[in-house]
Amino acid sequence: MSKQTADWLCHSTSQQACQHCMSQSGKNLEWVYCDLCGADSAKSVYVVKGDQPFSFPEPLSYVKCKQCGLVYTNPRPCKEVTEEQYEEKYARTDLPIDSNNYLRKILENSVGRLAFIEKYKQGKELLDVGCCQGNFISVARLKGWNVLGVEVSKRYSTVAREQFKLPVMTNTIENAGLLPDSFDVVTSFDVIEHLPDPLNFLRQCKLLLRKDGILIAETCNYDALHQLVLGKRWQSDAGQHLYLFTPKTLREIAEKAGLKVIEINKRTGWEHIFSREVGEQWWHTICNVLFRMLSVILGKQSMIVLVATK
Description:
By secondary structure, the chain is an alpha/beta fold. The longest helix is centred in the middle third of the chain and has 20 residues, at 99-118. Helix 4 (99-118) packs across helix 5 (135-142). The protein starts with a helix and ends with a strand. Residues 1-26 have low confidence and may be disordered. The strands form 3 sheets. A 7-stranded mixed sheet has the order 8-7-6-9-10-13-12, sandwiched between helices. The protein has 2 domains: 3-77, no CATH class; 95-309, 3-Layer(aba) Sandwich (Rossmann fold), CATH 3.40.50. It contains 10 helices and 13 strands. The chain has helices at 3-8, 15-25, 79-88, 99-118, 135-142, 154-162, 198-208, 225-230, 247-256, 282-298; strands at residues 29-30, 42-48, 60-65, 71-73, 76-77, 125-129, 146-151, 168-170, 183-189, 209-220, 243-244, 260-267, 303-309.
């Protein structure tokens, strides 16, 4: 490990030692306890460098709680750095705002997600948290749902409102001023792993649900076969994730938030062993497909979906 990385990271489980490390580094970091069990005892898992398009500018150290097994970054960027990350980098990526690209995007995942939801709930009011430019709620609205989106990115939420005429708020779920017991369904896709306090987020979702409403929360699976094989290279955007869940820890944090877990569903997603590049060799594609099939057989798919109710 280079001196620069060593100065920035601290693998000690001592808060006092880590605070000293942070003061020496001059970076905007914060030390946190485990969001699931509250323990301050963790072992280092791996370090992800800040060299990906969406990564934080410095390496992140992932640790695993010795008490409950939750994987999270520690120390991690403070709130100000996180907000800058998503507005300055994440929000500057190209948006599929022309009609052909937009339709292709929403049809790729959104139709399947809505079909999955409607197996559990046929309702009216749906809230999508972290809705980006509104791909999913566009499909839900076409199917007759009354939809609302919440998106922290000013650019994405503006595109949703002005380009696609969707009811999207530029805010977080905690500060949006939404009334309790207002929604039949609350969804969040690839959101919870980015949040500084996933436990509080789940509590807020529960508060917004009606008595028989359901929460659908999708996130990447730390127990996936791809992670076990590739380690820190298992996902290109790992450097922006503050938490990495397994089916076990996702269930436990949902239950701690007061939710009743109906199911933890596993599904395949974007996973691949070889990077997707133009002109990639045919055997790369075959290996990727076979590896996905093996992950299904072993029950170690790349994505997990929490289905829960009040």
